[in-house]
């Protein structure tokens, strides 16, 4: 690890997989007592770790390698025709990055989870879940708030600022505004934000080829996938 630092890792017992009903999963966690500075966080992200709440983790499944870390090299990214349409449909939105979330964020999150993810392990939404997942964060965490022309909050993108990029942690949005494609727009905005900061990457989390809700990441090209400890670019 960075600076030859010894880091304790903890593996969970097998637990139901969040993506495939026919298998169990195991997860590897970084020592929760370890102080994570930006340099170490960047180093771990380069090796496929992700953040959930205050914890850094990555899949540790012996017989399944479906979860593949992904990132976008932002300077090479070229939006598709459909992605340009998404950008144009949302050019009226105002985006403000803040170190904390607005009070309006939780009601928006609750509507999003209870409408869009009734089949997931985050349903039903609760304030406790919201706080542990998104409010318990890192010093480098930023909350990008997307407001419409009336000043209403329509989306929030949670992201961490690393030494070599932004890490897209989670996005939630108004489930009634389907035409805006706010989830896609949030990714496109974060790609642009990383480029504006002269950061080379947007870390997108795990790409899972055989899971519909996680396969979308390869819609953003070129993309880099972490394979056998090496980032491989796919155009």
Key descriptive features of the protein:
235 residues; alpha+beta; Aminopeptidase; 4-stranded antiparallel beta sheet; 5 helices; 31% strand
Strand content: 25-35%
**SS-derived structural category:** alpha+beta
The helix content is 10-25%
By CATH reckoning, the class of the largest domain would read Alpha Beta
Shape assignment: globular
Straight-line N-to-C gap: 30 Å
Radius of gyration: 17 Å
Question: What can be said about the biggest beta sheet?
Answer: 8 strands, mixed
CATH fold name of the largest domain = Aminopeptidase
Mean pLDDT: 95
Can you write the helix and strand succession as a string?
A: EEEEHEEEHEHHEEEHEEE
In the CATH hierarchy, the architecture of the largest domain is 3-Layer(aba) Sandwich
Give the low-confidence spans. none
Subcellular location: Cytoplasm
Protein name: Aspartate/glutamate leucyltransferase
Family: Belongs to the R-transferase family. Bpt subfamily.
Pfam family, one: ATE_N
Q: How would you summarize the topology of this molecule?
A:
Layout: E1 9-11, E2 15-16, E3 24-25, E4 27-30, H1 38-46, E5 50-52, E6 55-59, E7 68-73, H2 81-89, E8 94-98, H3 105-116, H4 127-135, E9 141-147, E10 153-161, E11 165-173, H5 182-196, E12 201-207, E13 223-227, E14 230-234
Parallel strand pairs: 11-12
Antiparallel strand pairs: 1-4, 2-3, 4-6, 5-6, 7-12, 7-13, 8-9, 9-10, 10-11, 13-14
Question: Could you walk me through the main structural features you see in this protein, from its secondary elements to its overall organization?
Answer:
The chain is an alpha+beta fold. The protein has 2 domains: 2-67, no CATH class; 70-234, Aminopeptidase (3-Layer(aba) Sandwich). It contains 5 helices and 14 strands. A hairpin with a 3-residue loop joins β10 and β11. The longest helix is centred in the C-terminal third of the chain and has 15 residues, at 182-196.
């Amino acid at each position: 690890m960075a600076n030859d630092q010894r880091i304790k890792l903890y593996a969970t017992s097998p637990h139901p997989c969040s993506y495939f009903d026919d298998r169990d999963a195991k997860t590897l966690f970084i020592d929760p007592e370890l102080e994570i500075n930006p340099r170490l966080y960047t180093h771990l992200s380069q090796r496929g770790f992700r953040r959930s709440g205050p914890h850094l983790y990555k899949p540790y499944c012996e017989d399944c390698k479906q979860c593949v870390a992904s990132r976008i090299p932002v300077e090479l990214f070229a939006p598709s025709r459909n992605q340009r349409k998404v950008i144009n449909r949302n050019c009226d939105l105002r985006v403000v990055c803040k170190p904390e979330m607005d009070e309006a964020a939780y009601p928006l999150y609750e509507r999003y989870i209870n409408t869009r993810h009734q089949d997931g392990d985050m349903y039903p939404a609760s304030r406790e879940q919201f706080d542990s997942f998104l409010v318990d964060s890192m010093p480098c965490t930023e909350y990008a708030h997307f407001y419409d022309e009336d000043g209403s909050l329509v989306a929030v993108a949670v992201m961490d600022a690393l030494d070599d990029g932004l890490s897209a942690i989670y996005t939630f949005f108004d489930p009634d505004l389907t035409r805006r494609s706010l989830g896609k727009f949030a990714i496109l905005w974060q790609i642009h934000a990383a480029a504006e900061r002269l950061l080379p990457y947007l870390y997108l989390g795990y790409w899972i080829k055989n899971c519909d809700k996680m396969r979308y990441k390869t819609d953003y090209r070129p993309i880099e996938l972490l394979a056998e400890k090496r980032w491989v670019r796919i155009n």
